[in-house]
Structures are given as C-alpha cells and as structure tokens.
Amino acid sequence: MKLKQPRCQYSAEFKLEAVQQVILHQQRVVDVARSLGMDISTRGKWVHQYKAEKRGVTPVGGCRIMPDTERITQCLL
C-alpha cells in the first residue's frame, strides 16, 4: 500500500513571488519549478490563476495569489 504524501501549504506571498519569477522576470515555468523543487503543474496552475485574478476572476474554493493591496492598487490605476 502506497502512503499518500502530505500536501504542502504555501503562503500567498510565496506563490506571488514564484509567479512573478515567471511573469515579470520571463523565466520558464519549468525552470522556476525545478529551482524551488516543486511540481511543474503546480507552478503552471499558479500562473494561470494569477492571470485570471488580474482579469478579475476570483478562484473558487482556493487561496488567492494576488494580495489585497495589489488588487486595490490595480483597481485604482
């Protein structure tokens, strides 16, 4: 019987930092994921979620990536 590994919980700040490495610094998702020892699909989901939040779509049942202060600033611009 294979034991299930516990899920890692990452803070919104960590997720945002990781996503910004891909978006702002134009690094590949695979490279950022490897450098942090993470699954590539997890990082890809974060990038997709971040882009959706920038368009105003809120995640269902999930943790937001963009901090409230960034959302407020974005609305003011």
UniProtKB/TrEMBL annotation:
InterPro entries: Homeodomain-like_sf, Transposase_8
Highest taxon, organism lineage: Bacteria
BP term (GO), one: DNA transposition
GO MF term (any one): transposase activity
Pfam families according to UniProt: HTH_Tnp_1
Similarity section: Belongs to the transposase 8 family.
Name of the protein in question: Transposase
